[in-house]
Amino acid sequence: MATIELNDQFTNEWTVFEEAVYKYYDNKPNAAPPVITISDCDGIIYKKINDKYYRRVLTEGKINVEWFGAKGDGKTNDTENINKAVLFLSKIGGGILNFTSNKRYLVSEPIFITDRVSFHCNGATFSGNKTNTILKTAYLLNDNLTSNHETDPETNIITFSQIKDANFEECVVALDFFNFCHGSSLENIKFTDCEVSWKFSRCFYTSIKNVMSSGANNNQFAYQFLEQNNALLLERVSATKDLGFLFQGGTTATNLISCTTEGGKTGMKFVQDCLGITITGLYAETTKNVIDLSEVHIGNFEISNSYFNYTDQPLIGPDYLGQPEEEKEDREVSGYWRNNTIANINKEYNNFIYRGLMDVSQPRNYIKYELPTYEGPRDLPANWIVGDFTNITAFDQVKATDTKAIGNVKRQFGIIPVTRSGDVGEGKVGFIPDCTHELIGSDPSNFGIKIKTKIKFQEYMMFAKYNIYIGTYSYGRWFYGDIFGKNLSSKDVGNTQVTSIENENGLLVITITGFNEPNLNYFIQGNVQLIV
Asked: Does residue 134 lie within any of the structural domains?
């Protein structure tokens, strides 16, 4: 086919068009390629020149929003022209819409994103009018872009769509997404003076990375997850707002990694059922209520490796109506709190005294709290309030000469059995209750340790937890995780050693390899616990 170069009316760039018979189209099974007609000749993608049809040459499905007349000059309303570009990509089955670096696109009504359409914004800014929503999910209906918010949850799902390297400012809602699902993501996004940064409803398997929200405060949460949302990944998401994250209407299998909340009333609030929620590496500063579980019905949370600096209540426990033996409400919250630091307790900042209060005394609060004390007696710090049903364990500072590391502070209660504890001895003669251990290999630069338990190995029906400390002359490390049948889920991220499990004579054996110690000496302590 012949090609010609034409000057673009909007960008003033020379662009290649190729002679063609067929339009770009969504290459679905059994779909016939549509023929170009005069009505298709919009002067943007299709042209008719000397009785021949031409179409613009696209590279890897990428188009420029400015081909469709969007200016990004901070003065022109670009809503309609951006949606023209989205409509074209939606008709051909998706693609990448490129925006120009550092330009400001004014938006007065919602622009749309559809299935398999991605916005590569290159640092561009989308500016609202302080009363509108900037971006909504949509689908193609009769060749028109239509919001999918009122459709059946099982239909019109947005998949493999992406928004990256964008700024959103001065709006009521920046992103209003429904069914933004499998393979879809947000990355490198900044929200400024948006009342709500996003509303997510029924979003599954969505990835969100490197996001921050700041600016004027209001009475709404910056990040809102409404209705059912499952299998979300939030990594390095920051809220410098009065109200940060809201998870409401059912949330499962969601990971929050290295997120931050700063200078607000509530950092994260969870409502109704929340199952399999992991919060790790959280940094909270000058936040009054950091993690609020008071309105959770059934919940399971793992909160670890986080730092709470100048906070009033790092964790607000579940607010249940009845004692465990009373049939008032079928509610409970379980999980783990471990390796977290609460700093600047009862210290004043900006005329407010941050108590660092850990009131975990709620009757149906079944979270297991692992509390590092590091020095001095094992007494609970004054900022902790526990009840008769609290499940809490204190760890002293671990030393080779004093390895009594595990002791029960309050009596254990709940669906998880009592953790065994006691004197684990000194040096290599130390032990793990109901376990034996032995050296693997004789190479000081690469040896292992085998822990033999008395737990019957069941390939499909075994659920156990392990929490083991191994110290050598040069360092000491905790190894911990979950065992589901023949599968091991290690939680000690960052360790260079390798943990594995095996069936030895019908019993569970845990091996940890990759140690380096000139004299092959080590001491060991901890527990392996069968969950029944």
From this structure: yes
Q: What Rg do the C-alpha atoms of the chain give, in angstroms?
A: 29
pTM: 0.73
pLDDT tens digits for 347-356?
999 999 999 9
Query: How far apart are alpha carbons 449 and 212 in whole angstroms?
Result: 44
Q: Say how many residues make up the chain.
A: 532
Q: Is 91 in the same domain as 181?
A: yes
Query: Do 44 and 120 reside in the same domain of the chain?
Result: no
Q: Are residues 100 and 173 in the same domain?
A: yes
CB 238 within 8 A of CB 259: yes
Is the pLDDT at 413 greater than 60? The verdict is no
Q: pLDDT-derived band of residue 378, with 50, 70 and 90 as boundaries?
A: low
Residue 386 lies in a domain: no
Domain count, the chain: 3
Q: Is residue 251 part of a domain?
A: no
φ/ψ of 27, rounded to 5, equals -80, 65
User: Domain range for residue 34?
Assistant: 3-56
Distance (Å, whole) CA 262 – CA 258: 13
Q: What is the DSSP letter of 421?
A: -
- 322, 318, 343: which is closest to 333 by C-alpha? 318
Residue 221 confidence (pLDDT):
96
